[in-house]
Specification:
The protein has 632 residues and is α/β, with parallel strands linked by helices. It has helices at residues 9-31, 45-75, 79-107, 113-120, 132-162, 166-198, 201-204, 218-226, 282-288, 304-313, 320-326, 331-338, 377-395, 433-436, 444-474, 507-510, 535-542, 610-615, 617-628; strands spanning 262-268, 292-294, 297-298, 342-347, 368-369, 402-408, 481-487, 492-493, 499-500, 514-517, 524-526, 530-531, 568-572, 575-580, 583-588, 597-599. It is globular, with a radius of gyration of 28 Å.
Length: 632
């Protein structure tokens, strides 16, 4: 059967509904990938929630486009335009849904502001490089799904025209909605409501499997409307209701006769703490023997954005968006500039992504050098190093103190290194993201090859950093220069179930080395609980700032006097992680999430977390106050 050139509005509507239902079915097949993360050895009630929750989530995702296409089918007679419009948009929907399942397999989050920020921000091409396998799969997927969409539309339209009974045409879609889809919504919402009231973590945690899952905070509704109280006490909830910066509350005072050492900061992207050693980083390892090494150090974030933000501002990542909105430079840079420091910032990755030109370097943007032209990060690392060394040569006889910063990007995915330099073998020729994101994970051999590729990239970055350190020593800078070597965040290779970073607050993703050498620094090791947040206050206090005034402009402490029993805070996109002795408290900052969660240090959800949250209540209240201290 073929559709006519002028089908009736009723036939067009029916065909649009049929195409909508077909896409719900396709989406459920694609979305079944989320169910791979349901614990298979737990109570069957998890599946009683997960299966209808998948149906409910797919219905929610398709509701707006489905209704719009039904309305368009009623209003517009141009069947060809309707056909191609639906085919294109439904195809894009299905491909994006599949991409979301791949993202979730790696990071355990869905398309969110962080992903879209990666798409539209200039300079993000330095941060992500998808291989030919991904683009081939996307192209074939678009073509195949588009053809299927057109076929279903033509078949449904022809069938609707030849069906004599209007009631029968509408009966089957109505039965599907009434007997399958809507009951699934009611079942999963009822199960979630009961689990939320009883704080049944095994069920409520599954809600994160599904994109745009509509969480309903049942505690207030049950208490105020039904008169039912939650079975367990609720921990405090952090709500960021300030939108304007009030930063700093007071500028630090630096005495005129204080010391003015030069400062060199070498940051290696994705450098894990356990990479420091004679095999992976021989140059840094040798340098560390005459330095102060902090062996219990964490970044302030699980991504470059929040790692460098915490380093330079001494603030939690919750302040990122207000700072970006107002393009507010850090107090550290303001003070150094006012003290007459000269600046040189060098990066082999774009400082437009993340938006460091508009934040950390906004006051000294003319001193930022990040456009080195080469396509390979390992090549750009060398060019950035050469530019820094040339800049240092110009300062050799200069009396003015300087602050220099360099970011080496080669260990960032896709782990770039010179092809002929592969001390760690076997090494993958490239990172195959499709293999890394499969439901069963990569083959063991593939994971080893990718990890070796990362280690080869770290070894190259170490070679580059070693040349900088040699130049500092040969140029006689060490007597007057504080040198810091660290990473912006770590990198995980499925130790806790994740690949890469940005996905969790595991030790592999946030523990980084921190090595300091310079005048007044005694070589040795420190096992104090230190953080990137401590860099800015420690540096300014070396220059003479009063530690008693620290809370007026930073949330960090001193490297040399770490706070006992400290709860270190690490930032992610719309969430914070608070490291405690009992585990990691995940604190959502999104208005769509309400509950704190506790994970152990292998990122396994702690089901009975009430005692831990109760014990950490004061620390959580303190964290809430810290997140509001510099907002009005």
């Amino acid at each position: 059967m073929k559709p006519s050139n002028s089908p009736s509005p009723r036939a067009r509507r029916h065909a649009a509904v049929q195409l909508w239902l077909a896409n719900i079915g396709i989406a459920m097949i694609v979305g079944s990938n989320y169910l791979a993360h349901v614990p298979h050895d737990e109570h069957p009630r998890l599946w009683l929630f997960a299966l209808p929750a998948l149906v409910s989530s797919i219905l929610t995702l398709t509701l707006v486009p489905g209704l719009l296409f039904v309305l368009a089918a009623h209003l517009f007679r141009q069947v060809r335009v309707l056909a191609y419009a639906q085919a294109v948009l439904w195809t894009v929907f299905q491909v994006l849904l599949y991409a979301d399942t791949r993202i979730f397999n790696i990071f355990r989050y869905h398309f969110n502001g962080q992903v879209w920020n990666l798409v539209y921000t200039r300079g993000s091409e330095d941060a992500i490089h998808l291989g030919w396998q991904v683009w081939t799969a996307v192209s074939l997927g678009l073509a195949c799904v588009g053809g299927i969409e057109l076929f279903i539309w033509r078949w449904s339209l022809a069938r609707s025209e030849h069906h004599t009974s209007a009631s029968k045409r509408l009966l089957r879609p109505a039965m599907v909605f009434g007997s399958v889809l809507l009951p699934a919504v009611l079942i999963e919402k009822s199960i979630y409501a009961q689990a939320d009231l009883s704080r049944d973590r095994q069920v409520t945690a599954l809600a994160r499997l599904f994109p745009l899952y509509a969480r309903v905070p049942m505690e207030d509704l049950a208490s105020k409307v039904l008169g039912v109280d939650s079975e367990k006490p609720r921990p405090p909830h952090i709500v960021l209701d300030g939108i304007e910066l009030d930063y700093p509350l007071e500028d630090p005072f630096i005495p005129a006769d204080g010391p003015r050492p030069n400062v060199v900061v070498i940051v290696i992207d994705c450098l894990r703490e356990d990479m420091i050693g004679p095999e992976s980083t021989p140059a840094i390892d040798a340098w560390a023997k005459d330095s102060l090494v902090f062996e219990n150090h964490v970044s302030g974030g699980n991504s470059t954005r929040y790692g460098l933000f915490s380093l330079l501002y001494g603030l939690h990542g919750s302040y990122w968006f207000p700072v970006l909105q107002e393009q507010r430079s850090p107090v550290l840079i303001d003070v150094l500039d006012e003290l007459g420091y000269e600046f040189g910032v060098f990066s082999s990755a774009s400082m437009n992504y993340p938006e460091l030109r508009d934040t950390a370097w906004s006051r000294i943007e003319d001193d930022v050098h990040d456009d080195f032209g080469a396509t390979q990060p390992w090549v750009r690392d060398g060019l950035a190093k050469d530019a820094l060394i040339s800049w240092l040569d110009e300062r050799e006889d200069d009396a003015a103190p300087f602050f220099s910063f360099i970011l080496l990007d080669s260990p960032h995915q896709t782990y770039s290194h010179p092809p002929q330099k592969t001390p760690f073998a076997p090494s993958a020729e490239e990172v195959n993201y499709l293999a890394m994101t499969g439901n069963e994970g990569p083959e063991p051999g593939e994971l080893e090859r990718v990890r070796n590729r990362y280690k080869n990239a770290v070894r190259h970055a170490d070679d580059v950093a070693g040349e900088i350190l040699e130049r500092l020593e040969a140029g006689g800078f060490l007597e007057s220069t504080l040198v810091f070597v660290t990473g912006d965040h770590g990198e995980e290779f499925l130790e806790c179930g994740f690949f890469g970073h940005t996905s969790a607050f595991t030790p592999e993703q946030v523990r980084v080395p921190f090595v300091v050498r310079g005048p007044g620094i005694e070589p040795g090791t420190s096992d104090g609980s230190t953080s990137h947040l401590d860099f800015a206050p420690t540096l300014l206090e070396i220059l003479g700032a009063d530690p008693a005034m620290r809370s007026k402009w930073t949330l960090g402490g001193s490297f040399f006097e770490p706070e006992p029993q400290r709860r270190r805070v690490i930032s992610g996109w719309n969430e914070l992680g608070m490291w405690t002795p009992a585990g990691i408290v995940r604190v959502p900052l999104s208005p769509f999430e309400f509950d704190l969660e506790v994970y152990d240090y292998r990122w396994r959800l702690v089901m009975d977390d009430a005692d831990i949250l109760q014990e950490e209540a004061d620390q959580l209240l303190r964290l809430g106050a810290e997140c509001h201290r510099f907002l009005r």
